[in-house]
Design brief:
Layout lengths: L15 H25 L4 H29 L8 H22 L1
Helix pairs in contact: 1-2, 2-3
Length: 104
């Protein structure tokens, strides 16, 4: 069989579940620090905690999902040199900051 006509298929790694896990960890840290900031400012600590937690969860989830999608699209593996992982991380940070930062 002629292999030149076959399409090369790449396995699709799940992106959503790990991104949601990263967002949950980011959101939990946002809750803690938002509550602490609310206590220090003598304001409503619950409101600060919820707002900070939601913002951190949105940033963490979006960054991780964007970075994973770029790494997968550029076919960067764990054995790739570190420079090959820096560019997607930088791009994901810029996209995340621009989109989520603009919405918040």
């Amino acid at each position: 069989m002629d292999q030149t006509n076959q399409k090369k298929s790449y396995p699709v790694e799940p992106v959503l579940i790990p991104a949601l896990k990263a967002g949950a960890v980011s959101g939990a840290s946002g809750l803690v620090f938002g509550g602490a900031a609310g206590i220090i400012r003598s304001s409503h600590p619950g409101l600060f905690a919820i707002a900070s937690g939601l913002q951190c969860a949105a940033l963490g989830t979006t960054y991780y999902a964007t970075r994973a999608a770029i790494l997968q699209a550029w076919q960067v593996t764990a054995s790739s040199p570190p420079q090959d992982r820096i560019y997607p991380s930088t791009l994901a940070g810029g996209i995340t900051g621009g989109t989520i930062g603009g919405l918040i």
